[in-house]
Amino acid sequence: MRIAVVGASGLVGREIFEVLFHREFPAQEIFAYSTRRSVGEKIRFGYDQIEVEELKLEEMGEFDFIFSALDRESAKELVPRLKEKGVVIDNSSAFRLDPDVPLVVPEVNPDRAKEHKGIIANPNCSTIQLVVAIGPIHKEFGIESLHIATYQSVSGWGREALDQFNYEVEFVAVGEPPDSKGSVFPRPIGANLIPKIGEFGDDGLSEEERKLQLETNKILESEIKVFPFCVRVPVRIGHGEAVWLRLKKSASRDEIIRLLESSPGVVVDRDYSTPIEIAGKDEVHVGRITETEEGVFLWIVADNLRKGAATNAVQIAEILKES
Ligand SMILES: NC(=O)c1ccc[n+]([C@@H]2O[C@H](COP(=O)([O-])OP(=O)(O)OC[C@H]3O[C@@H](n4cnc5c(N)ncnc54)[C@H](OP(=O)(O)O)[C@@H]3O)[C@@H](O)[C@H]2O)c1
Predict the structure, then answer these.
(1) Residue 239 is a catalytic residue
(2) The domain 2-122+309-322 belongs to what CATH superfamily?
(3) Complete edge-to-edge strand list for the sheet that includes strand 119-121
(4) Tell me: the pLDDT tens digits for 24-66?
């Protein structure tokens, strides 16, 4: 198969190469595209190195799949044109809520992928790990409402964000206040917490919080009341989510554990996992499963670059290549 990765030099783009190799995707020819500033950079693809080329649509050939790891604004402009060159699996938020674009998490709604009209959207990282864990619970017991507090790593905001974090922690290590001039974050992120991911809307919710509400219900085809609160934390890779579910039918802790143990893509922890432990893994870890009078508590952790982006995108291509 002929594969292109657009936005190849970014964090998600690089991870897509890693996942394609790791899952032995039949990519006979693979190309890496980014802007001019990344031309010549080398991307690891198993034992090979793929050189980044400048994206020039008029010079591109045709592909079986094009993985887009562009930012939202570039994706808005380029993805509709890339679709003329091959089926696009887009990681950005540009088309996720478009009724003509399926929003797919393979463990939850794989068949939607086959309804595509040239573009399939990969959901937001915090939404993917949430629906992998709660999808089976919703199917079995029905979820009435969901409260969620997220603890999201800096790599979720891209390469510049990770570089900024790595720079600021050098100050923290020597006991100095971090230099955050020109940062992509609204406040210092070294040894800090920022309760703002994306811009705030008129109702006070951030863009990330809005994504959790809308994307969760689009994927689950539900009307769950979602109450989110998203926080950026000084962690390199891996998002944590503290989730409290109110169910329509009551469920015991043992029933939830048994259900999740047999659910695809989920690992049930005896106690809990942390971001450091799950970095580089493809599964969603669920721990701290607790039954209370008010509902069920869960702690959900996953690698935002793997299952939260690259792995999910490659799984979508796997569904389509088999159909
Ligand atoms: N990071 C995550 O955990 C995560 C998870 C889920 C979804 N996403 C989404 O995935 C997308 C990529 O995220 P990321 O974290 O990988 O961001 P990133 O590290 O900032 O990478 C963005 C990439 O897009 C390229 N690019 C930008 N404009 C371009 C253009 N006009 N033509 C060609 N290439 C262009 C950049 O190339 P240059 O390096 O040459 O500028 C870079 O390779 C975003 O939409 C993000 O919201 C990210």
Answers:
(1) yes
(2) NAD(P)-binding Rossmann-like Domain (3.40.50.720)
(3) 42-45, 48-54, 29-34, 2-6, 65-68, 87-90, 119-121
(4) 999 999 999 999 999 999 999 999 999 999 999 999 999 999 9
